[in-house]
Amino acid sequence: MSETPVKQQNTAAYYGQAVASFAVAISATAIGIARLQADAWVRAFLGIAVLYLVTSAFTLAKVVRDRQEAGQIVSRVDQARLEKLLAEHDPFQKL
What distance lies between CA 85 and its chain's CA centroid? Predict the structure, then answer.
């Protein structure tokens, strides 16, 4: 008997909270950089650094998700092969 893993679904509230949290964080950072008492080139450098950090975080999240999904697929293929071997095996068969 095989156990099929339950696919986890995020609720709309969880998704909304994640989007709102991201929006607040990026807005607060942008406002902080804009109101910083520094030259324009310093603020521009910090703005570019924040954009680089955000894109790197999205890329890292995608890579981690893709690796996890690939591991699940390999696990399912291995489990299917094992189940096939066990189904075909007859312990009472004479050699």
Answer: 34
Which one-letter amino acid corresponds to residue 83? E
Tell whether pTM > 0.70: no
Q: Is 31 left (phi over 0), alpha (psi -120 to 50) or beta?
A: alpha
Q: Find where tokens 């950089």 sit.
A: 33
Give the 3-state secondary structure of residue 24.
helix
At 52, list the tokens: 């680089």
What angle do the packed helices 40-88 and 12-34 form, to 10 degrees? 160
pLDDT of 25-55, one tens digit each?
A: 999 999 999 999 999 999 999 999 999 999 9
